[in-house]
Amino acid sequence: MKVLFDLRPSHLVQEQDQQMDITRLFSLIFFLVFCLLSLVNIVYIAKNLLEVREELTITRGDEIAVTENVTMLTASINKMREVRDRARIYLEFTRQELPAVEFMAALEGAASDGLTIINMDIRPGNVMMRGSAVGDQDIIDFSSRLDGMKNIVTKVDAPVTTRGLVGSMRVTDFSVTCNIKSLSEIAESMPDVLATSLSGNSESGGTGEAGE
Fold first, then answer.
1. Segment holding 84, helix H or strand E
2. Is the pTM of this model over 0.70?
3. Do 135 and 185 meet the contact criterion of CB atoms below 8 Å apart?
4. Whole-angstrom Cα distance, residue 129 to residue 57?
5. pLDDT of 64-86, one tens digit each?
């Protein structure tokens, strides 16, 4: 059995007990600093996470808006392409200088009552017509009248005819092709008509001024 006796004076024992352990103090300080830094880091990360989520939400909204704008722009581009294609077709048609209206107006006097035009194809420089007539004479007369329209028609080919039936009535189907002038050629071939029209308009305008 061992018995230990503390031979230090009582005042020295009291002073030594009251002394602070430096190692424990530094350990406690480091622990508190670590906890504080960890808390600050957690708050900072949480704040950044919230900001990133807000930016992600804004970015998604911008993406939706951009997608809608792209869709609208695509639709507008498609409409503009349609308008461009229509304008191109119109320009190509006008460049062909097809005297469709003039030829149709002249055709009214060439077709007789016994002749029916079923199909007409007007192209630059020529017209092809298909139809039917009661007799061959109507087709011959029709070709002669076409050939007589020198202000529009330059040449009439011989009609191609075939026999057919419409119910119990015999008819003659035909196809005929004729060469036609362009609009500029028609205007050049009718200067007198244009001059008369212009002079008539000027005279009517002058009469109107006198009446006033």
1. helix 22-95
2. no
3. no
4. 68
5. 999 999 999 999 999 999 998 88
